[in-house]
Design brief:
The protein is built from 14 helices and two strands, in the order H-H-H-H-H-H-H-H-H-H-H-H-E-E-H-H. The chain has about 350 residues and is mainly α. It folds into two domains: about 270 residues, no CATH class; about 60 residues. Strands 1-2 form a two-stranded antiparallel sheet. Helix 6 crosses helix 8, helix 7 runs antiparallel to helix 11 and helix 11 runs antiparallel to helix 12. The two termini are about 35 Å apart. About 25% of the residues are buried.
Length: about 350
């Protein structure tokens, strides 16, 4: 655990120093991944599939807010569909506009979640989203998750219908039927929302190790519900494949939690206090911290400098003592002589300390 905390602190310090460049690189990579997945699913326009165009669009998108980046990715998909069917592109554009007007313009920071869902569906790691959504976000973010599920199935349905060589109005009608009669999509809506809510409620329950319990409970529920859904819908996905996909998602979510929330449950504190209106019960869980011992490299140099300064002080006092004795002053010279002896004794003590430290 200490290694994880050290690595987390190192990454955090590095990010604080270079956060502007790191944010741009992450947004560029995220946009590239989204455009690459769109190309793989519905990349029908040969011009848009050029790698340098993908890089150029991603470079522009990394300077834009999250909502505009999402709209850029969606516009890229619409242009690809437009190359095959104008009515189909118009339908996809209307659906995306509805998602934006009804939800995303009120929660623009959730735009990343839609693109994330599309990318992870393509990578077959979509089960990680409801786990992390329940840990880091509120239940309202489930709307963005469902928008991402819908977006992926729209693009997937378009690719399935186009491979059947259907043209004209029949292409439009078949695509609509394929999208809105997709029972798997509705099942994923239900399963992912339930898992995200269960994870959220366990995470906010206040029990010890709530984050870890929430992720493992969510993973088990996800595996169970998806197995039941596949059995009812007679899916061809084998249980072992489903188990491996859910297991990978749980492991990734658990690692993210270890880095983000390294809690120390051995030092939990419970407090109670009140004001004029309420009585409060507070449970404080400290985060793990590692305080590295700071080495004072200048320790001996400091002693050496002190010793040098003491020598100069002794020499100065000796000169003053000689001057006083030559002038035959009264008993004040005795006081000066005593001061000189005290300084010399202190100088001898410093030498002894230095020799003992060097021997150690």
């Amino acid at each position: 655990m200490s290694v994880i905390v050290l690595l987390r602190n190192t990454i955090e310090e590095f990010y604080k120093k270079h956060y502007f460049i790191i944010d741009l690189i992450l947004k560029f990579s995220f946009s590239c991944a989204g455009l690459f997945v769109i190309n793989q699913i519905i990349g029908y326009n040969p011009m848009l599939s050029k790698w340098y165009l993908v890089v150029l669009i991603s470079a522009i998108s990394m300077f834009l807010p999250a909502t505009f980046m999402l709209l850029t990715v969606m516009l890229y998909a619409i242009i690809n569909i437009y190359y095959i069917s104008i009515p189909l592109a118009a339908m996809v554009g209307v659906l995306i506009a509805i998602m934006y007007l009804l939800y995303l313009r009120f929660e623009p920071e959730h735009a990343y979640l839609i693109v994330t869902m599309i990318i992870l569906f393509y990578c077959r790691l979509e089960f990680i989203v409801p786990l992390l959504l329940g840990v880091f976000m509120t239940p309202i973010a489930a709307v963005s998750m469902c928008c991402g599920i819908l977006s992926y199935h729209i693009f997937d349905s378009v690719s399935i219908i186009i491979t059947q060589s259907i043209e004209g109005d029949l292409l439009f009608n078949q695509t609509l039927e394929q999208i809105f009669s997709n029972q798997t999509m509705y099942g994923e809506f239900l399963v992912f929302i339930l898992v995200a809510l269960i994870v959220y409620f366990i995470r906010t329950s206040g029990i010890n190790h709530a984050f870890n319990i929430a992720v493992f409970a969510g993973g088990f529920l996800e595996l169970t519900l998806m197995y039941i859904m596949n059995f009812v819908l007679q899916s061809n996905e084998h249980i072992y494949v489903l188990f491996i996909r859910v297991l990978i998602s749980v492991v990734i979510a658990y690692i993210v939690i270890l880095f983000r929330f390294p809690f120390n449950y051995l030092q939990v504190e419970k407090m109670q206090f009140e004001d004029d209106d309420y009585y409060y019960y507070v449970k404080a869980v400290p985060k793990l911290k590692i305080n590295l011992a700071e080495r004072n490299i200048l320790r001996y140099n400091a002693k050496k400098n002190t010793t040098t300064g003491t020598k100069k002080s002794v020499e100065k006092l000796e000169k003053e003592l000689k001057k006083v004795s030559e002038e035959n002053l009264d008993d004040n010279s005795e006081d000066l002589k005593n001061s000189l002896e005290a300084v010399e004794n202190g100088f001898d003590a410093l030498d002894e300390d230095k020799n003992s430290d060097e021997n150690i």
